[in-house]
Design goal:
The structure is a homodimer of 623-residue chains. Chain A has 623 residues and is of the alpha/beta class. Chains A and B meet through helix 2, helix 11, strand 20, helix 12 and helix 21 of A and helix 2, helix 11, strand 20, helix 12 and helix 21 of B.
């Protein structure tokens, strides 16, 4: 019976020294608890999403030096950890030093080599190069390593024989993607299964998104039950980013039995060690304390964790939030309030004559319920003054004239760039961007206006998910922190008379339909384009493909109406909205395809295929 | 003797139909000139930098359909072109349809297969996955193709036998990186050289950066002279982007003889066909018209082309430029003026009491010389009014107080987000961001202020290059469009009394030193960190490593001074400046490492290695 500990440590990206301090503590704690083996996640010293820091040789040397510190700390036990291995005698294809995403093992102060090799680490075999992942930009895979050496992956993939007191564990060590082998021509798990492995150990740095853990359970369920080998899985905890896109890491250590059934799971974002026993004879893997698999909704915990970590990473805990009385800003205010004391928030309402009494009252009511400071700064007179200064200025052959539409954008910019930015610096913190994904997709927002802010916490949530999050927040608080009126008021930017909610006017988006239409442009693995949409429309299967509840015919009486709407939003999505997203704030990822580094975009013109144009002609009966 | 045409077409990214129209015209023109073979660049239908458009299956089908159109148009001649090949029966490692970056050949309406294969295209072998390149994200390489098939790259890399009237050309067809084989373990050119190839044809989509063509001439000079095979090279023309980073493509078709000497070269950004003759017997490759290799400075032509193309891609030709009387805004104004008529520009000066008479006069003088409309919009009273509204507002336990530093940022935001944004929409165009790379590197700029704008044309130029570009522009105009006073005035943001140029005050950057220090953080292939910098400083070789002319000792009398300055800028570069760059506008790339998609960055904390801390201790004599 071998006692194994896993440490789902909070990895601070790029900060080797601080990560080592945590690791050192966990090693000490694991020793005190008499664990024979300690598992740490993939890239536990450096973090995983650190951009091109891998170009800095000093950073690589530092990483090597701390790998040696971990090995030295393994006196009296065995430690297994993910880190970068550098082979200075070779180069990657880019001419920079050769780097492997590697798993190291050390016991009693000495590095171990995988069975039959003289290389003190195992090399990640499957390097993901899709979504937010760029492994091949930085690391050479075991496949290429074997090819260069003139051997095969089957020869090079080899178990570690890990000392565990008087016993020895023949462990198949995998790095994250190595177990997600569905689409690869090679399965590291199958290769290891043929080499007397009694337990798989997967060290991961797997960013959280909704539904991903469930997918992992299904996938591992299928493959482990075939191989009849149990698995212990440990993931990083923390928040890491690729610039635009911030990912939470849930640290949900998991134990699967040899039938592939999930038997134990750490709570999301949970600190500290988990302990297991493993019997190599019976292959029985059990947690020492009860660890029931998590069944809750991860949306709110992930966003709370993300917001808290983001703020601490930029060393602030003060937040200014512009609140309009609408759902997006209210949900953001309640979200921040759920992780900060009320006095650390400042809610700001910046009305003009276009803002209704109803929403102004709702905004104030929200602040009262949240118990936060609240100020009102009317901006109408400033807009008028700016307009009067600019109107009529000579501009070559023409003179400056500001239309109503231009004044709408002026209001949005005035709110963020003039009022919120100044207030947040004086308040000693940041101001938030309250955008949602529906707006982001079509650029229904103003640059340097409502699209400004240090963090867009809810920008990966479709409008229906913003409402869902609002309900989750009220449940979390156990009372109606977000007043019911905010859930029911008509969504509107209230920037002009055309958006007067008292007359039932508001946003141009029909969220019950457009949420799902726009999602289909962005999130499916094979993303939909107007050609696909129009084909489904023509065959009457669009609702089914989009997963929306409204009937398209009810929204758009004719094919022309439908097509006009489709092209309006496609032109924005593929056009000006890209320009806006280039300058948008970072967001917290929760979906399978967040904007930013996951969906890589170029500013190009919207395109319609020939097949689309034929279909359109057929449907409209004209060219 | 075979007549060959090359078409360095202006590829519009993502617009297959428009690119086909150009290709069709070039085919017609090549036929009229009786060329036997026509070469088109890599990815000539789709463009190369198109982000994740490759996820759209409708786009892939459209691409296949237009590949067939090109093949059908090859009646009476042979056409060779780069495009995407899809094998719907297989998947990439990401589970999406299998895609190859491929070269197709067709003659008399029929696709050709490389000699000895039954595959109607050749597959790119070397897939770059560094800098701005993501080939492995989208495409499967010939190396993987061969491995899956159980053959070898040596077997699969095969020449095309291209019909050319009564003759046949045994051509080694390469796609861009296939010829940049320095750091790869495999050389497609060497493999082809063993297969009776008499001419290399390289189809490229190679983004322009300063010095890159010279590097190509050196590199191909070395490899071709060894193989004794000449090469004809054709590159895309146009402007493509990866969101943040816009690259020009120079379309500089080039002919190298069998000694590897550059014999003929198209002018940069030059439209139209180039014609060559090739004798397979003597291997003599000659241009029909004289095409002397280009020897000019590419900086100005590249930026002019980039600005022109960017504006046309977003369908505007009106530009508002905030001008301060300093060098950055003046150079931007002159740059835009060099591609637009004067009435399409609106120059705007937005002074406060901190702006000197000298710079205000210089700004007006600049507009006079450029002949553009010019308006002055003082902003001081607005700043004061905003301050008086916000000052003293209750904010929980504290009250709002605006410091001088906060008011500096308010000025910057007021200029861009209030004045320039509104004016540009009324003027019917965009406003520019006039940032340079030195500022960008350390975030010496204000978000939603001077860092705002639709395009940052000079943001990849170090401050010394901005001055250089100013001189080039005055040469281009043949007169002093940018007044001499702008070159000599002290650089200053003029946002407070501490930046009063009449008292010799200004920017905190010592450009003669910091330009080079900051460049070393960003541009070397092995990027420098404080550890490297401090080692060089300690051994007295820093100036040499940085390439700067000032003596470090003259700038910083003591090691403490030096280290204080180093850490100040490193903390900004690796810290808050990253947050600013996440929300900065797109730029035009000219350097070997532009910000944005080329240098991928995460928001992490600035880090100092242990070795740095030891060195610091030694130099300062304390911990």
């Amino acid at each position: 019976m071998i006692k194994i500990a896993t440490a789902q440590i909070d990895v601070i990206p790029g900060n080797i020294r601080e990560n080592w301090k945590q690791i050192e503590q966990e090693i000490q704690a694991a020793k005190e608890q008499k664990a024979r083996i300690l598992l740490l996640p993939e890239m536990c010293l450096t973090g995983y999403l650190i951009g091109d820091l891998w170009d800095q040789n000093a950073f690589l040397r530092e990483c090597e030096s701390y790998n040696r510190k971990i090995a030295a700390a393994s006196r009296g036990m065995t430690i297994l950890w993910g880190s970068c291995a550098v082979d200075w005698s070779k180069t990657n294809d880019d001419g920079r030093p050769r780097k492997y995403n590697a798993a190291f093992a050390a016991s009693d102060g000495k590095f171990l080599c995988p069975s039959g090799t003289d290389r003190p680490y195992t090399i990640k075999t499957l390097l993901p190069d899709y979504r937010c992942f760029d492994d091949r930009r930085y690391f050479t895979s075991l496949i290429q390593y074997a090819a260069e050496k003139g051997t095969s992956p089957e020869q090079e993939i080899s178990p570690f024989l890990l000392p565990a007191g008087k016993e020895t564990l023949c462990a198949g060590v995998l790095l994250c993607e190595d177990s997600w082998d569905e689409n690869y021509s090679l399965s590291p798990m199958s290769i290891l299964a043929e080499k007397q492995v009694s337990l798989f150990l997967n060290l991961s740095a797997s960013p959280f998104t909704l539904g991903k853990n469930e997918k992992r359970h299904r996938m591992l369920g299928a493959s482990l039950s075939k191989l009849h080998i149990p698995m212990l899985y440990v993931n990083q905890r923390g928040l890491q980013n690729n610039g635009k896109t911030c990912y939470t890491f849930d640290g949900m250590t998991a134990a699967y039995d040899e039938e592939g059934t999930l038997r134990a799971e750490a709570q999301p974002f949970h600190e500290g060690l988990s302990f297991f026993t493993f019997d190599p004879e019976s292959r029985k893997l059990e947690s020492l304390a009860p660890m029931p698999p998590y069944t809750g909704n991860m949306l709110l915990p992930a966003l709370q964790y993300g917001v808290r970590k983001f703020l601490s990473s930029i060393h602030t805990d003060k937040v200014v939030i512009g609140v309009s009385g609408g759902i997006d800003s209210a949900v953001n205010a309640a979200l921040y309030r759920s992780v900060l004391p009320p006095e650390n928030l400042l809610l700001v309402n910046t009305p003009t004559r276009f803002n209704s009494e109803m929403t102004k009252t709702l905004a104030r009511d929200l602040a009262d319920r949240l118990g936060t400071p609240y100020v009102t700064v009317p901006i109408g007179s400033f807009i008028d003054e700016t307009a009067s200064v600019l109107e009529g200025l000579p501009a070559g052959r023409s003179t400056i004239h500001l239309t109503g539409f231009m004044k709408e954008n002026m209001q949005a910019r005035d709110r963020s760039s003039r009022i919120l930015a100044a207030l947040s610096s004086a308040f000693g913190g940041i101001f938030t961007c309250n955008a949602n994904k529906t707006e982001m997709t079509v650029g229904y927002s103003t640059l340097y206006g409502d699209l400004a802010g240090a963090l867009a916490a809810t920008a990966d949530l479709w409008k229906y998910q913003v409402y869902e999050l609002g309900r989750l927040l009220n449940d979390y608080f156990g009372k109606e922190m977000i007043p019911e009126g905010i859930f029911t008021v008509k969504p509107s930017a209230e920037l002009s008379e055309n958006q007067d909610i008292t007359k039932g006017l508001g946003d141009p988006l029909i969220y019950e339909y457009h949420d799902y239409l726009l999602k289909s442009f962005v999130e499916p693995w094979q993303r939909l384009t107007p050609e696909d949409i129009l084909s489904f429309y023509a065959e009457g299967t669009l609702e089914e493909h989009l997963g929306c509840r409204v009937k398209v015919k009810d929204v758009f009486p004719t094919a022309s109406d439908f097509i006009g709407d489709l092209e309006r939003w496609w032109n924005l999505f593929a056009g000006f909205a890209v320009a806006k997203r280039i300058q948008s704030p970072p967001l917290i990822a929760v979906s399978r395809r967040p904007f930013g580094y996951d969906l890589r975009e170029s500013q190009v013109s919207p395109y319609y295929t020939d097949r689309y144009r034929e279909l359109k002609k057929q449907l409209c009966g004209r060219s």
